[in-house]
Known about the structure:
The structure is a single chain. By secondary structure, this protein is α/β, with parallel strands linked by helices. It has 3 domains: 9-123, Rossmann fold; 140-329, 3-Layer(aba) Sandwich (Rossmann fold), CATH 3.40.50; 331-433, GMP Synthetase, Chain A, domain 3 (2-Layer Sandwich). The chain has helices at 20-31, 51-63, 77-86, 138-151, 169-182, 194-203, 213-222, 241-250, 341-348, 383-391, 419-433, and strands spanning 9-13, 16-19, 43-47, 67-70, 91-94, 101-102, 119-123, 133-137, 159-162, 187-188, 207-211, 231-234, 254-260, 264-269, 277-281, 286-288, 297-303, 306-316, 322-327, 332-334, 337-339, 354-364, 368-377, 402-405. A 13-stranded mixed β-sheet has the order 2-1-10-9-11-12-13-14-15-19-18-17-16, sandwiched between helices. The chain has a 4-stranded mixed β-sheet with strand order 4-3-5-6, with helices on both faces. A 3-stranded mixed β-sheet has the order 22-23-24, sandwiched between helices. A hairpin with an 8-residue loop joins strand 16 and strand 17. The longest helix has 15 residues, at 419-433.
Amino acid sequence: xxxxxxxxxxxxxxxxxxxxxxxxxxxxxxxxxxxxxxxxxxxxxxxxxxxxxxxxxxxxxxxxxxxxxxxxxxxxxxxxxxxxxxxxxxxxxxxxxxxxxxxxxxxxxxxxxxxxxxxxxxxxxxxxxxxxxxxxxxxxxxxxxxxxxxxxxxxxxxxxxxxxxxxxxxxxxxxxxxxxxxxxxxxxxxxxxxxxxxxxxxxxxxxxxxxxxxxxxxxxxxxxxxxxxxxxxxxxxxxxxxxxxxxxxxxxxxxxxxxxxxxxxxxxxxxxxxxxxxxxxxxxxxxxxxxxxxxxxxxxxxxxxxxxxxxxxxxxxxxxxxxxxxxxxxxxxxxxxxxxxxxxxxxxxxxxxxxxxxxxxxxxxxxxxxxxxxxxxxxxxxxxxxxxxxxxxxxxxxxxxxxxxxxxxxxxxxxxxxxxxxxxxxxxxxxxxxxxxxx
Length: 439
């Protein structure tokens, strides 16, 4: 519930407080423009560097029933404009200038379809190919928020500290909007210096940190012995088991949620016992998956008349808890035996020198596909010694055929890892520079 006094703090970005009046003044700068005078007939694409300007416009645009595509601020202008064109937006706003560019109509002068009440337009993760546009009505998002808050009552009265992009549904809907609906003040962190984030958490002892596994891993390495994380929410990527154990030891509680662009949040786990446990499905959704870890199946989600095939493998346990195993496209078929990347990564991350690890597939003339590994370590690791270490802990078909140590694992703009991208980028150099184990 929004504060009744329009001058009270509505949200905080880093250390700057903003009220409803501040948001209204910022939004009026855009809403007074003739090009944006009719939000109900306008689809805008927004790529702002200033997070406050984006949130102020988003709140006003949602209230007025407009449709909007938020674009990550790190996106180059040419790429952002292409996204705006591809998602059939009418206007493009870039770089905080406040001057909307009217976009040409699609070929054939086809009238644009603008949903009644407006939509939030987003892009799929792009981990398995070119991101595709997904449109969800504000009405659907309101329903998601209502069930999200009821299901996740453990977050009541906690201060959400959102250390992830608010151009993505995880930060925007589950962190920012949900915090406002609960009547608490969301704190958005765009300064991702780990020391700054830890200072913010120290200043708000009853906090709920929304972050990615990668950022959490970095924070844990810098967390002072006397400090703990109060509560942590994880989403956006599989949570490696070694990281889960560290988080449980250094925090007051670990939550994990699972979702997709087409449906929003699907399930929440308030007591995470294992890495793939993503919890209870939200009550407005009908979720089906496999019957056990040995018999997983594609996770399918129905909301009303619409059914979404997630392309994720998972299963429901006897307690109605959903478990995620792997992306179907990421599963590695080695001589007819399925290898799930997380099973390999969880073992490799037990090595005391390895900080990050990603398993991915490459074609193989004899086995069909083989497991390859990209990893980050504190110093140079002898890959043959690492492979021997893996043989002692993994089944033969799970042992990486080749390994490559890198200084940093590349990520998409949303922070996720694309195994397809790794396969295309590192496949040739891995074949060229590293020996493979015999099939």
